[in-house]
Design a protein that fits this description.
With about 200 residues, the protein is mainly α. It has nine helices and no strands. The chain is elongated.
Length: about 200
């Protein structure tokens, strides 16, 4: 009986925690300095509830960070089920760019708080997704063989240095086009592209 009475409490606590993370993700994307009280209000919980789950601002930021990485890694196999490998790769890069905007503005806090264990866990999840997508592209011949996933992830580091807003998003799109073009160069059966037409 005690377990049955406690179960709704645990379920409510899980829902509150998930809701706070969701709201915090959007809040930090819009304004990295968003206050915890404003996040609690938007999540529909009291400040005390938020602080029970996340005693400090840094704890909440890390929870958002981890949640985003988990979703990002899980997104790769989902994309491969619904799209050709190269399209799935580009869509995943777009999601990574969005994640970069979430991280933008709080990177200093994350850098100071993320220990080697957490860094290894996060890096492992992301590099696993990159590897899965690249190998699928290699298998169907849409990119050249032998691409190193670590090299690709290192190259994508520009995402963390691109500012928010429409101008930043446009720059990210152009840079990702260059990345995809580079990966396609030398792919089996892929002709060398000539200069792109300039639209007037």
């Amino acid at each position: 009986m005690a377990e049955q009475r406690n179960e709704p409490v645990r379920a409510d606590a899980r829902q509150n925690r998930a809701r706070i993370i969701e709201v915090a993700r959007d809040a930090f994307t819009a304004a990295p300095d968003a206050s915890l009280n404003s996040i609690a209000k938007k999540a529909g919980v009291g400040p005390g509830t938020l602080y029970r789950h996340f005693p400090t601002r840094e704890a909440l930021i890390l929870a958002v960070y981890r949640h985003e990485v988990e979703q990002l890694a899980a997104y790769a196999p989902e994309l491969l089920e619904d799209h050709p490998p190269l399209e799935a790769l580009r869509l995943w890069f777009d999601r990574l760019a969005y994640y970069g905007r979430v991280k933008h503005g709080v990177s200093d806090i994350l850098h100071s708080l993320t220990d080697d264990g957490l860094a290894g866990e996060i890096y492992g999840a992301v590099i696993g997704a990159v590897t899965l997508l690249l190998r699928a592209c290699e298998k169907d011949g849409s990119i050249r063989p032998g691409v190193d996933p670590d090299d690709v992830l290192l190259m994508l580091g520009f995402l963390w240095r691109t500012g928010p807003g429409e101008e930043g998003e446009a720059r990210v799109a152009r840079l990702l086009d260059l990345v995809i073009d580079g990966l396609r160069l030398g792919a089996p059966g892929t002709p060398v592209a000539g200069p792109r037409e300039t639209r007037s």
